[in-house]
Every structure is written in C-alpha cells, then in structure tokens.
Amino acid sequence: MNHRPTPAPSDAPTPAAATSRAVIDLGAIAHNAGVLAKAAGVPWMAVVKADAYGHGLGPVAATCLEAGATWLGVAQLAEALHLRTLLDAAGTARPAPGAHTTPTQAAPRLMCWLLPVMTPEAAAAPRSPLRAALDAEIDLSVSTRPMLAAVAAAANAQGTTARIHLKADTGMSRAGAVAEDLPALAGAARTAQDEGSVAVVGLWSHLSRADEPASGSTEEHLARFHHAEQVLADAGLTPGVRHLAATGGLLWHPRARLDLVRAGIGLYGLSPDPALATSAELGLRPAMRLEAPLVQVKRIPAGQAVSYGGTWTAPTERWLGLVPLGYADGVPRAAASAGPVSVAGYRTRIVGRVCMDQVIVDLGPATRADGSLRPAPAQAGDLAVLWADPARTPGAPTADEWAQVCGTINYEIVTRLGPNVPRHHIGAPTGPGCQEQP
User: Fold this and answer.
1) What average pLDDT does the structure give for the chain?
2) Is-catalytic flag, 268?
3) For the chain, which terminus, N or C, has the lower number of CB atoms within 10 Å?
C-alpha cells in the first residue's frame, strides 16, 4: 500500500468487457481526498467501512493513504481486523506504541466503532475478538460502562493498554453516552486509565443534520460536544483527538472540524446532499461506474408484457436489451420501470420489474413511422452503464439519479452493490496485499 497508484490508460467503457463489473477510478478517489483535505485544513480519517462504500477496501485504503490520510475508520470489528491484515501484507507500518504517538500516512491509526457485546470474562478469553483487536492495535470506540469493562478486561488479559475513544451522544440518539450517563462513564474510564488498562485518546460523536446548514442542529451538537469535553476534563481526562465532522460537517460547518475529520461519502465523489450542492459543484468526481454487456437483444410486439407481473407492456413494437444485473447484485427493486441506463450511448431506462439477476431495458421502437423495420440500436455485447461520472462517461446516469428514482440516497446505491460484482480498479496500487480478488 506504499505504492502510488499509476494513471489508467483510459477510464472509458470497454466494449470488449465480458462480464458485469464495477469500475473504480482510484484517481478520482485521490482527487476527492485532495478536495476534502484542503477544505478541512486538519488531519483526516478515510472512512472505508462497508468495503469502502462498495468500492473495495484494500485498493481504496491504499489510495487514501497515498493521498494523505493518517487514520482509517470502519464500523465492524471483523472489517477492522481484515483491514489490518491487508495493511500488514502491504508492508504498511503500524504506529509506534504509546497513547500519544502521532499517526502518519506510512503508519496510520485504525479505528473501529461497533464492538460486540461481551462480559469481561468473555472479553478476556484467549480467542476473544476484543483481544484480537488489541493485538491488531485498533483504536476502539466506547459508549457504555459495560463496554468499557469488557475492553479493560481484554487489555488486562492481553497485557497491553487499549486505546479508546469515548463517544458522547450529542443528538443523533444512536451510539454514544447521553448526558446523564457520561459522568459515570468518564469516571470509570479515568479509573481504568489510572490502572493502565485503557488510554482515553479520543472524544467523538456524530452530526445528525450536517447537510442542513441552516437548521441549527449542528450548533446544538457542538454545544453538547463541548459540554462532554468539560465532563471529561472534570474527570481528569484530556483526550488528544476530538472528532465530530464527517463529509457534510467538514464541508459546511468549519467549527465542527476540531482535531480530525472523517471523510466518507465525499471520498467516493458523491455529495452528502445533492440538493444542497452536487458533486460537480463541490469539485468531486464520482469514482464508480457500474457496467454490464447486453446478453441478448430481441424484438417484441406491441402490447407484449415485460418481466414478472407484466407491470409494463410495450406501447409499440419494441427492441429490448437484457442486462445481467439484478437485485441479487444490489440493483434496487424500486428501480422497476424507472432506473436510468445508457446503452451504446443511447439513454434509456429499465422496463418491468427488476429480477434477481437481470433487468430489461427499452431500446426503442422496432419500426419506423412508415412501418419498415428499424435496426436494433444495440447488439449483444454492447455495454450498458447503470451509473458513472457523466464527465468521464458522457450520457451516463449518475448514482444521484438512481437514488432519486428509487426514493433513497446515493450512499445506499453504491454501498449495496453485491460482492459478486467484480470491482475493477483503475490505477490500483500494485503492492502485495493491496489487491483483493473479485
């Protein structure tokens, strides 16, 4: 992962592509990292949870480190351990031991924020996942006293000191200690720190409405966060890393940037709220292109029903194309008769219901006004592009368009893409452990 990604010879769709695939432009991710880092003005964490939002954990993590990230963050502990394995295989150094060492691109810190519920006895057991996390030198988020007790027990059994980030609930009402519980948690953390089982290195939280700059919500979160800082100070704790802002916060709330920002959706070239500012307006480049070759083109008569349930019927004699992607691959069923697709430069849409592993697209009328046959505008083997960066793939739909027609957000569109869709990384690092097989 210490290798710099090499420029791709081309990021245009390849007609010879023989399979469905998601083409991931690591150059775009590096570009986006630069845009976000410049806006933030403080150290940044690359959030690579959920297989890097569906873009591929190893190559994206490598690219972000090359682009200046000094932290990598994931939600699930299993993914944190997998990421550590990838980093070790790539020869990426671990940070020097010690609670207050400063991470670097070459020796980044890893953080994980969803831990298994365990008793202290289970946490101290030899095969405990918490002990594995400590052995992998992963920073852990702690929101409750039982969680703290489990982490401390694992650290004592491991003969080490756990680096923890206490999480305060500043208004998301998700993870984190509420105001009434935080003093007791802070006091217990101070005791555990004095005993050498933990080092409280961070205080953190999440913003719930960072994409609504005029709502006043972020200001309320900030006030609660600063109150949490005082609670920790009263307990004798002075964490060196305070972090609150993700992409929306770092872009639109300068006061929320604090000591560290967590760059997530923006790294992948998508806006936290396209209605507020589009990717292009933010200077971001969408990194994923989902494409598949047509496996069949056929002509059907007017009135013919299409796909399960016959929810769409051909208004005239039509050409149809069959795309080998469906809901098992992550294409939302809500895209029925709505999902936009570009086929051989021809902009069209899915017709009928989304099937488990295929969709049907309308390729237009099969006859001219005079009744003569109109040649098919595409053939089997031609590429269908479901979403991409239209600046790089002219005429292609965007993940934002897909989110709009499916009644969801761009995060879900890219992240739900299934693991059976191969990721093809453009300009991927070549170091050992950086690449993961499709």
Assistant:
1) 93
2) no
3) C
